[in-house]
Amino acid sequence: MVAQHLSQKYQDAVYRSVEEIQAEMISFLQDLVRIPTINPPGENYKAGAEFIGKTLHEFGYETHYIAANGLAENTPQHPRINVLGRLEGAKPRPCLHFNGHFDVVPAGDGWTMDPFAAHIRDGKLYGRGVSDQKAGIAASIFAVEAIRRAGIKLHGTVEQSGSVDEESGGFAGVAYLAKQGWIGQDKTDYVIITEPTNVDRVCLGHRGVYWFKITTHGRIAHGSMPHFGVSAIDHMADFLHDVTHGLKPVLATRKTAVPVEPAGSRFASININSVFGGQPEEGTQTPCVADRSGAIFDRRFLSEESFEEVRGEIYAMLESLQAKNPDFQYKVEDLMVVHPVHTDENCQLVTTISKNVEELFGKKPKLTASPGTYDQKHVVRIGSVAQCIAYGPGILNQAHLPDEYCLVEDVVSAAKIMALTAIDLLGADPA
Question: Which prosthetic group or cofactor does it need (predicted)?
Answer without folding.
Answer: Co(2+); Zn(2+)
